[in-house]
Design a protein that fits this description.
It is globular and about 30 Å long. Strands 1, 2, 3, 4, 5 and 6 form a 6-stranded antiparallel beta sheet that branches. The chain has one domain. It is 21% helix and 43% strand. The protein is an alpha+beta fold. It contains 1 helix and 6 strands, in the order E-E-E-E-E-E-H.
C-alpha cells in the first residue's frame, strides 16, 4: 500500500444540496486503485491542529488528466477490503 500526503480542502455537494467541506488526510493505493481518507471540516480552511480522533471517510478516487473525483464505495466487499488494508497498515506503523 502506497501513501501520499496532500493536505487540502475538498468541497462537495451533499445529498440535500448542502456544501460539505472535507480535509484530504491521505491517499492510499489498495489493489491498484487510489482511495482518499477524508475528514469533515466546518469551513473551507484547514484546521490549525490535527485530531487523530476525527472520523475518517473513505472514498474511491477517479483521476483524469484534468480533474479528480471522489466516489462513495457502494460495494461492501470492496469497502471491507480497503478498510482492512488501511487497518493493517496502521498496525504496522504503530509497531515502529
Amino acid at each position: 500500500m502506497q501513501e501520499e500526503n496532500n493536505s487540502q480542502i475538498i468541497k462537495t455537494i451533499g445529498e440535500h444540496g448542502e456544501e460539505i467541506y472535507m480535509k484530504l488526510q491521505e491517499v492510499v493505493n489498495v489493489g491498484g486503485k487510489d482511495y482518499a481518507l477524508l475528514s469533515l471540516v466546518k469551513e473551507d480552511v484547514l484546521p490549525t491542529d490535527d485530531n487523530d480522533d476525527d472520523e475518517l471517510i473513505v472514498m474511491k478516487m477517479n483521476k483524469t488528466e484534468n480533474e479528480c473525483t471522489f466516489e462513495i464505495i457502494e460495494d461492501d466487499d470492496e469497502f471491507n477490503f480497503v478498510a482492512q488494508a488501511i487497518s493493517d497498515s496502521d498496525e504496522i506503523e504503530d509497531e515502529d
